[in-house]
């Protein structure tokens, strides 16, 4: 795998910002966003390849002292071109479905060897496909799933390497919808029950108890919970070794959070390199002298800040005292504000000259009151036809799009230095209706 690593890693700056004004016009690296909108239409997702590589490199550097594989969480952004970019720089992948397995195969087949398969509801066909692909590790989330895995491995004559995804009962402060590490959540297996399950599993010649896995949630900003979870996992691994299991992998999951806050304050406060270094120190503390090969499953931290959603203002309207800015992007294009009350910074494509502002709700055209991007947001004045950018939308943006209200999905562009590549064309009316039968 070492020969596949990109020849020149990007220079490590503290916090390179792909989206910045140049001559008062917003650019993504070398590309002028107004020009991209004119050529490709809106709404439009734009990603910086340089930023994606940079974030991957931060993890590689921070974890260089120990054997590790970075298994990018495909669900954060599953565009084939982005998967290929990461795979060519040595990344593996964390998948949660047979569809994501297919994406990895298509993006970069050799990366199948570096796939870990998570998820509470794996189906027979998905397990079969992953066994045939000879993936690295199944992260098993229940005893029933383990039984199915053993049966399918036997049927296909393959030995399945597995880790139990244990639930460490650790609290991590984040939105309740993306917290997963407590007993009350559907994820994983109670860590206290794990040892007995490994013992039973080891009796099957079709199951290889190869690791232990944990994932406590997403958008976690403080690193202490990661250390606490790994301390518990490491002590379980010691028990498992005593029981005679050959544990080679410890999977620490993903979940490291980013700063979605206003730019002015974050530029000084948020230093991604420091954040990854702190995260690595926390994991190292939790692992102690544990020598197992470390698997990491970052999604958001790699891709969120590399991407943004470009949208055009359709209308500005007043209802009583409230002002609404209505954009051509809606909740079907970016659901995070509606689903998690997530904050996305919104900036105009033309750098404002004056200091005047407008307080408005930024909303989409979808027929739902939940279809908003921001409420009572202070913005520079905008008028119909202006372009605005929703920042930090690279993760859980495009991958959570839908066709709700029969709206075609947006196009996606990848900026590679001075080169702009269409990595997904805008959906057409034909695409929209294709699966239907009249
Ligand atoms: C969603 C998920 C991840 C990625 O989480 P991020 O917060 O995007 O880093 C990693 N592992 C598992 C099992 C997940 O479900």
Describe this entry's structure for a reader.
The protein has 13 helices and 21 strands. The chain has 438 residues and is of the alpha/beta class. Helix 3 (80-88) packs across helix 4 (98-107), helix 5 packs across helix 6 (143-156) and helix 7 (191-201) runs parallel beside helix 8. The relative contact order is 0.16. The chain binds pyridoxal-5'-phosphate.
The helicity comes to 25-40%
Shape: globular
Termini Cα gap: 49 Å
Rounded to the nearest angstrom, the radius of gyration is: 23 Å
Number of discrete domains: 2
CATH topology term of the largest domain = TIM Barrel
Query: What is the number of beta strands?
Result: 21
What's this entry about, in short?
This protein is of the alpha/beta class and 438 residues long.
